[in-house]
Amino acid sequence: MGNKNWFWDKLYLKEFQYSAYLKKKIHKLSVEVLEERKEVEKTNKSTTNEKNLELIILWIISKSNL
User: Which domain of life is it from (predicted)?
Assistant: First the structure.
């Protein structure tokens, strides 16, 4: 039984670390997108970071069954 609990604890820790990583990545990309949008506002084009952020958010939504 100890091994089973260890497995679930390890899995939970990995999920938590991955979740924290995604939050940091989303925040970083959000800041970069805001800065880039200021620069390219007149061209009306999406930036690479903006597209990446949209893809990450869509992926999270698909995984959370919303």
Answer: Archaea
Domain boundaries, the chain: 2-63
Nearest-angstrom CA–CA distance, 59 and 24: 16
**pLDDT tens digits along 14-48:** 777 777 887 888 888 888 877 777 776 666 666 67
Backbone CA torsion sign across 3, 7, 10, 16: negative
Amino acid at 30: S
State how far Cα 16 lies from the chain centre. Answer: 13
Amino acid at 17: Q
Q: Specify the pTM.
A: 0.44
Residue 64 φ then ψ, to 5°: -95, 5
